[in-house]
Design brief:
The protein is built from three helices and no strands. The chain is an all-alpha fold and 98 residues long. The chain has a domain of 61 residues. Helix 1 runs antiparallel to helix 3. The relative contact order is 0.13.
Length: 98
Amino acid sequence: MSAPARTPDGGSAPSTIPPEAVVLTGIVVVLHIIVSLLLIMFILLKSGRGGGLSDMFGGGAMSAMTGSTVVERNLDRLTIITGVVFALTTVILALRLT
């Protein structure tokens, strides 16, 4: 049997964090990193006023006539969903790491 852990001031160390909590926090951190990279990618793919990288995926000539293409609408939806997931993982991490 080992002696209980001591802090530098001689008191007992606080109880350890359960392994399940550490694993869950790790999963949320990995998800947060993936969502962050996806959000950056989706924002860079969006077309601005003069067109963008989304024109490479089929939105070029038709977007001038019809306004918004299916690719652009789907990219908008994916950006919104990714932004919401990013916000949720940020709040979860802020609550778990305090």
